[in-house]
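Human: I wish I could look at a protein chain and see how it folds. This is the protein in question:
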Amino acid sequence: MKLASFRPAAGEPTLLGVVDGDELIGVSQSESNLPSDVGALLAGGKPALEAVKNAISSAPRFALRDAELLSPIARPPKILAVGLNYKDHIAEAGLDTPSVPMIFNKQSTSVTGPHAPIHRPRASDKLDYEGEFAFVIGQRCRHVPRERAAEVIAGYCVVNDVSVRDWQMRSPTFTMGKSWDTHCPLGPWITTADEIEDPHALQLRTTVNGELRQNSNTRHLLFDCYALVEHLSTAFTLEPGDVIPTGTPGGIGAAMKPRQYLKAGDRVRVEIEGLGVLDNPVIEEPENTPLY
């Protein structure tokens, strides 16, 4: 299944949907016990997924083109991103190949929808894109050996690990440069693992204003999904809804000559074979950002 969170029209309640061609099946509208957020659904385990399947036949259908797709997981418990996980990106960064996965956090408040605007910060003009393949944890787990890692992966999605480069590099940890609001477009839905024959054979392409910037394949991952599950779960518990973006291939704007940072008016499109497309405009950070 392709599991989405969406609004049928602006201002309407959020629904949990199953993508069927050019339609969205609003399963949570016909089955009130189902949540609208895919992360919450995954926390319900196999019974919740069975309830989705049972609701499909009687649920209303909506045109995909008319709906507002939201991030399928509004607030992941953890976003555990991976740095330097493609050889061509390591080369363009001029860094040594890591001997173990390089893990950093993106804060959950950075998540935004697959077509929502990316804010160019008022505090920096060094805004960059990173098209990434991500997997989503489907059950609470710890100490998962590589050979059983596939059992705990619920599905896969597309992520743009938007980065503020000067803030990223001014400290040993990347969190401050990776976690700005709107800097984790995610989606467009979660494709369940049973639909992907081989997660390590998917083409990834990133364009900016139609210009191809990144063109790679998940077979080039230095540490694949199963190695990452084993590594991460050695240290701490993984939970349903945790998102693990697996790193970006070569072609980032900061490595171009001259450097090509994102500016307002740009449009970034990240597409992964079998998983869908993120297509986000870049706008200036609004001046009326509220105080909380």
